[in-house]
Write a structure and sequence with these properties.
- The chain is an alpha/beta fold.
- The chain has 2 domains: about 300 residues, TIM Barrel (Alpha-Beta Barrel); about 80 residues, Golgi alpha-mannosidase II (Immunoglobulin-like, Sandwich).
- It has 13 helices and 16 strands.
- It has a 7-stranded parallel sheet with strand order 5-4-3-2-1-7-6. The protein has a 6-stranded antiparallel sheet with strand order 8-9-10-16-12-13.
- A hairpin with a 4-residue loop joins strand 9 and strand 10.
- Helix 6 crosses helix 8, helix 6 crosses helix 13 and helix 9 packs parallel to helix 11.
- The protein starts with a helix and ends in a 17-residue tail after the last strand.
């Protein structure tokens, strides 16, 4: 092999190595990480799927797309959507009381029906339903008054629009008529300009991007335009790789932490996003709280969804869940909002989080321990242990620490029966410094 060939191969290997090293582990954009601080600390958000699909209690948009119902019959629900008992101030107070720090409303789902008085289309609840009024603005105002961050859900696809290439009346494809599809994206831009100018949301929750590539959606241009309205705007991951600020897994609870530094799990209270009167499979408040704690343990947020009825009332089951969340979050506030992901699994048989300075370990118990709670591999000395929410001081001890070994002993915390919360008990463990864990395989005696 001559030197030039050898040198070229070495150069190629170096280029490949650098491309692997320098490629980010996720495709999220955080040009302004400071704007993410409130999102990271928020921990709990409320998702609200409200639209004409609540009239018949059927799947939002998908019911006609999947031919469970004709498009014409789906749109007949416009006549039954009244919002006659809509009380945005009551909604906002309930959301705040739950402990949530942000809320996201479906301003437009895939069916194309806008909940505000859009000038870009005639298809809105203002023009086409008995509601006859803007439903987005009043809630945004009420949320802002309560100090809740304002989020707007917007579907970038629209199965009702004549210039979208997968609508119900005719079929064409982007590749055959890109100029026509650009007319559709112009329409999207116009509606998003209306939402930005009128309501100034803190967050956009996009959906529907899977049918086209980012360049077809004009995602880069759209993001630039939206940030022009609000430089601190946060955008979810559904405008395509590289255009979102956080990841948003859906329904299934992650077993391992998502790749993004910032993420939220969006999950329904029952099995439906919008209101379905026949869906009584509501998760219990305790079950949802355990899911919430899983998110806290992995350093993420929970965006918990409910669907209001067509008259604007919130189902009793959802109200009960929000009230129970409020009871638990208000009691355990110090162990929720300014925490970070906990210690690795295996050190204690429970989810955990850490304070921002890593000197307090929070342990979340949804069970009563047998005799004592055990923590293994904790090098730190324990300064104090207490029950979050009532301040009861607990006793701790270390067992099995050998003077010749670097392996820490087992730390035990005694927990009396009378301190348990009815859902999840939180134990705070104050350490003598930032958490320091033993993560090795143990050792054998070398000198005694």
């Amino acid at each position: 092999m001559n030197n030039s060939i050898f040198n070229n191969r070495i150069l190629l290997v170096c280029i490949l190595f650098l491309s692997i090293v320098l490629t980010p582990s996720h495709s999220f954009s955080q040009e302004n990480p400071e704007k993410m601080e409130w999102f990271k600390d928020a921990k709990l958000g409320i998702f609200i799927h409200w639209g004409i699909y609540s009239v018949n209690g059927i799947d939002e948009s998908w019911s006609f797309f999947n031919d469970y119902i004709s498009y014409e019959d789906y749109m007949k629900q416009l006549d039954g959507f009244t919002a006659s008992k809509y009380d945005p101030e009551k909604w906002a107070k309930l959301i705040k009381q739950s402990g949530a720090k942000y809320a996201v409303l479906t301003a437009k789902h895939h069916d194309g029906v806008a909940l505000w008085d859009t000038k870009a289309s005639d298809l809105s609840v203002v023009k086409k339903t008995p509601a006859g009024k803007d439903l987005v603005g009043p809630l945004m105002n009420a949320l802002e008054k309560e100090g809740i961050k304002k989020g707007i859900y917007f579907s970038v696809l629209d199965w009702s629009h004549p210039d979208y290439d997968r609508n119900t009346r005719e079929t064409y494809r982007y590749k055959n008529d890109p100029a026509r599809f650009k007319k559709f994206t112009d329409f999207n831009f116009a509606q998003l300009s209306e939402l930005s100018e009128q309501y100034n949301p803190d967050l956009y929750w996009f959906d529907g991007d899977w049918e086209h590539k980012p360049e077809e959606w004009r995602s880069a241009e759209l993001k630039k335009k939206l940030l022009g309205y609000n430089p601190n705007l946060i955008i979810n991951s559904r405008l395509g790789p590289g255009f979102g600020d956080y990841d948003t897994p859906e329904q299934g609870v992650p077993v391992t932490r998502p790749a993004s530094e910032y993420w939220e799990l969006c999950m329904t209270m029952n099995n439906s996003w919008g209101y379905q009167g026949n869906d009584h499979a509501y998760k219990s408040p305790s079950e949802l709280l355990r899911i919430f704690v899983d998110c806290l343990h992995m350093g993420g947020n929970l965006l918990m969804d409910f669907g209001p009825k067509p008259d604007g009332t919130i189902p009793e089951e959802a109200v009960n869940i929000l009230n129970e969340f409020g009871r638990w979050t208000s009691k355990h506030e110090s162990a929720i909002y300014e925490t970070q992901a906990g210690i690795p699994d295996g050190h204690v048989y429970a989810p955990t989080t850490l304070s921002k300075d890593k000197t307090i370990l929070y342990i979340y118990l949804d069970y009563k321990v047998n005799e004592s709670l055990a923590i293994k591999g904790l090098k730190n000395k324990i300064q104090r242990v207490w029950v979050v929410g009532n301040g009861t001081k607990l006793q701790s001890r270390e067992v099995g620490k050998m003077y010749w070994s670097a392996v820490p002993g087992m730390k035990y915390i005694d927990i009396p029966d009378n301190v348990y919360d009815k859902d999840i008990t939180v134990i705070a463990v104050l350490l003598d410094g930032p958490v320091d864990l033993y993560r090795e395989k143990g050792q054998v005696i070398e000198s005694n």
